[in-house]
Amino acid sequence: MKIHEYQAKEIFKKYKLPVPNGIVVYNAQEAEEAAKELGTPVVVVKAQVHAGGRGKAGGVKLAKSPEEAGKIASEMIGNRLRTYQNPEGLPINCVLVEAGVNIDKEFYVGLTLDREVSRPVLMVSAAGGMEIEEIAKTNPELIIKEHIDPAIGLLPYQARKIAYKVGITDKNLLSQFVKIAMTLSKMYFELDASLIEINPLVQTKEGEFICLDAKIDFDDNALFRHKDIQELEDTTQIDPLELEAKKWDLNYVKLDGNIGCMVNGAGLAMATMDTIKYYGGEPANFLDVGGTATVERVAAAFKLLLSDPNVKAIFVNIFGGIVRCDRIAGGIIEAAKQVELDRPLIVRLEGTNVELGRKMLEESGLNIIPAKDMADGAQKAVKAAKGKL
C-alpha cells in the first residue's frame, strides 16, 4: 500500500525525523494562505500523487510569492499528473505547500528488501534528487549498500561506514546522518514497510540534514496490524480494476497487453505470461485467483477481465490442486450469466475434478475454445487476440 508524501512526513515527524514545514491544501486560496503562513521567500508546491518523477512532469514547482503559489495550485488541483511511471496520469486532489530550504548538497537514502540475499538493504547515494533507477542503470557504483540483519536491525557502525563512503565526514553531520539512518531502520521494522525512501535528503548551508521528500510503501500482508495506516489509503490513486480486485482479495496487476489471464497460483501465472510472450503475444494482466477461490470470487475475476477494453482474448489456465476445476468452471459460467461474453475464451483445465469441470463447460452452451495444455492454450490465445482463430 502506498501513501502520499505529506502522510509519510507526518509519520516521519512522529519518529522525530527532520522535515520542512509544510501545509496540505485543496484549493488555490488555501495555497496562497499557506504560503503567507510559512513566511519564507520561496515555497515549493508539490502535487500529491502516488508516482515518482513528479519534478520532471511539472508536479513540483517553486513559488516566489503567495499569489504565485495560489496560481500554481490552481493549475495542479483537479488535473492529472502524467509521469514516466503513470503515462495515463493520476488525479491531483491536493498539493503540499512547503517552506523553501537553503540546499547545499543532496543525497538519496532508501531502505527496502534485497530479495537476492533475503535481507533489508540500506542504499545511499551522493547523487540525490535523481531517480534511483536511472542511477542504477548509468552509474551503479554511486549507490552504496549496507545489508541489515533483521534480528538486530541497523547498527551504528554500519550507518557511519556508509556515511563515510558518500563523503559525510563532518562530525556534526555524521551524527545527524547516523540518527536518521537508525530511525529509518526502526521505522521499517515497526511499520512493516516494504520501502522507505528520502529523495533527496538535503544537507543545508546551515549544516543540517532535512528530509525534503518522503515515501513509504507498506506490506499489504501486514496491514491488519496497522489499522491507523490502512485509513491513510487514497483509493483515487489506484487503478479502478486493481481496486475492484482488492475487494475480492484477488492478486491483480494491470499490464499493457491484450490477452487477459486468469490463473491459480503466482508461479503458474508467471509461467502463463512467459508462455504467451514466447508465442508472440502480450498479457494484459497478472491475475491469480488463489488456492481457495469460491465460485463468486472466480466470477468476479472473470468480470474484471471482461471490463478491460484492451483485452481481446481471455486465457483461463487452471491447475486444480487446492482449488477444484469444477469450482473454476462454475465461476466462469456464473460470470457469463452476468456479463456478455463477447471475446474469445480459451480454457485449459487440469487437476482435481477436471472431467467434471470440462463437462460443466461443455454443457454450459458457452463458446469456449478448449486447450489440451498450457502451450496449446497460449498459442490459441495469441491467435485469438490477433483475430486469426
TrEMBL record:
Record domain ATP-grasp: where: 9-227
GO cellular component, one term: cytosol
The keyword Cell inner membrane is annotated on this UniProt entry: no
Pathway: Carbohydrate metabolism; tricarboxylic acid cycle; succinate from succinyl-CoA (ligase route): step 1/1
Gene Ontology BP annotations: succinyl-CoA metabolic process; tricarboxylic acid cycle
Binding site residues for Mg(2+): N199, D213
Record EC number: 6.2.1.5
Keyword field contains Transmembrane helix: no
One Pfam family cited in the UniProt record for this chain: ATP-grasp_2
Xref: SUPFAM superfamilies: Glutathione synthetase ATP-binding domain-like (SSF56059), Succinyl-CoA synthetase domains (SSF52210)
Residue numbers binding ATP: K46, G53, R54, G55, E98, V101, E106
Cofactor(s) listed: Mg(2+)
Sites where the protein binds substrate: N264, G321, I322, V323
UniProt GO molecular function: ATP binding; magnesium ion binding; succinate-CoA ligase (ADP-forming) activity; succinate-CoA ligase (GDP-forming) activity
Catalysed conversion reaction: GTP + succinate + CoA = succinyl-CoA + GDP + phosphate; succinate + ATP + CoA = succinyl-CoA + ADP + phosphate
Transmembrane segments: none
Keywords for the protein's UniProt record, in alphabetical order: ATP-binding, Ligase, Magnesium, Metal-binding, Nucleotide-binding, Tricarboxylic acid cycle
Subunit structure: Heterotetramer of two alpha and two beta subunits.
NCBIfam families (alphabetical): PRK00696.1, sucCoAbeta
Family: Belongs to the succinate/malate CoA ligase beta subunit family.
Protein name in the entry: Succinate--CoA ligase [ADP-forming] subunit beta
Species assigned in the record: Desulfurobacterium thermolithotrophum (strain DSM 11699 / BSA)
Gene designation per UniProt: sucC
